[in-house]
Model the fold of this input.
Amino acid sequence: MSSSTQSAADPAEALGAILARIEAARKAAIAPASPITLIAVSKTFEPHHILPVLTAGQRVFGENRVQEAKSKWPELKREYPAIELHLIGPLQSNKTREAVELFDAIHSLDRPKLAHALKAELDRTGRAPTLFIQVNTGEEPQKSGVTPLQAPAFIRLCRDELRLPVKGLMCIPPEAENPALHFTLLKKIADENALPFLSMGMSADFETAIRFGATHLRVGSAIFGHRN
Ligand SMILES: *Cc1c(COP(=O)(O)O)cnc(C)c1O
Done:
């Protein structure tokens, strides 16, 4: 893995700079800015890249693959029990058990089959990871997520019928578009459905996301360096 990634010169220093920018953007926001959780996205980086960021005090991390997370995090969690892990990538229903075992939050709930699989697993284990429904705000065929139009019915199914701990929405705006339009749309759907959390904003646009009400930022390369 390390051969395919180029780590930041000093991830701990990068983390400090990002936290300062988050605080400045939060204070500058017009609406009373809600508390913001920075998720340090460590996908493709190995434990020796992650350790300096842990040492610097960061405890919330994001991964996009269940298998990769399983190979890295159980050991780190033994050393740092307060670690909070977020799954930000797609989840296959047959990986639900492993995902629920390892992750404290899942940002990619996007279809009824997965909702039912999660329901069965949460009932079986008594665990209650924070769930985000992924919305494909740009309606891109290659991206997961429910469409903005499908979102209200899917929220009702997950939260009200299945009683899943759905707390927010997540989106990944199309690369070539102004992310602000997508952040606004996600915030509108969340407000209309009384969901408090918004997982939006990555390395390139997290300050914009804060301005539009983000509560959870998913920042990878700005902390850990470039991924190939
Ligand atoms: C990789 C990834 C991120 C982090 O992206 P950066 O541009 O490196 O900050 C955020 N969200 C998701 C869903 C990702 O897969």
Observations:
- The mean pLDDT is 94.
- The first strand starts at residue 37 and ends at 41.
